[in-house]
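pipeline stage [seq->struct] | target=Dehydrogenase | organism=Actinobacteria bacterium BACL2 MAG-121001-bin67 | residues=337
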Amino acid sequence: MKAGIIGYGLAGRYFHSPTLLAAGFHVTAICARSLDKKAAAHQDFPNAVIVNSIDELIAEDLDLIVVATPNEFHSDHALASIRAGINTVVDKPMGRDYYETASLYDAAEQNGVLLTVFFNRLWDSDSLTIKKVIEQGDLGNIFRLESRFERFRPEINPLAWRESVSVESGGGLLLDLQSHLISTALNWFGPAELAFSSVRSVRGSSDDDVLLVLKHDNGVDSYLSASAISGKPGPKIRLNGDKASLVITDLDKQEENLRKGFRAPAGQWIDSDEITSSAKIYKGSDSHSYQGEPGFYPAFYNEVRLAIEYGGELTVNRELSLNVARIIDQARQTSIR
């Protein structure tokens, strides 16, 4: 299957292109604007056609287009791809609000093409490990999730557009990392309503400290924290049940390897020991290691390929995508800050 990518920065080059390859896609066309990104695209894919615009990209013979441009361009680029009758993956967030996201799904249905958003964190080691521990019942009746993306960056990076551009242009952690936290919580524990929101800018630019609480229909409460200015980040996951708690301290090393330029041929991925997060189960003062599941981002594009070829189901479907967008909109509207 032939895939094209528009946007060849961090997301397009280091996340999408190697994951596409591992899932068996051929990257045959790349749209990039700057000379350095064009050079990087040619270096990585010397046989791919390098183009200058979305119009040139959709003119290529493609089965899939991946939209990996800055957030403010997602809607326009995805809509062009959809209207050209091409299956489309959009880097998260799909749209800057619920309306943009719903409009793209409506357009995809009208044009008979696949559309989904890259919620790759559903295939992090911690995410897959949580699904395992839920299935095995080791924690008893689960009632609280704490899930985090916390780091300490007290100074704004002027080169990181997500930190510096306005909310209207798609900046801030609510759209960025909370998209992952919300989507994983909904995937693990099902439908939820927003119970609390604090969306704030501490450093004076786009929102950089965001705490949400979701109330799931099944009785679980999810506490979701995304912060760029946490001097002592908490564990990535703490999941409490009435018999025990599961704690996962760190992310797996999929992102770390991808940022270093990892690539693998179809059907291969990073060594499982490197991409399995360390997990422990605690019962008061007693604890023991819990065997985690290795992360596997190619599963996302494997699903996309099978859905295109055979009409298979997608984990990241319209319902999940719109529920994430709805909660993000509500969080911005009801924030106590």
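stage status: PASS
auto-comment: The domain at 2-119 is CATH 3.40.50.720 (Rossmann fold). The mean pLDDT is 96.
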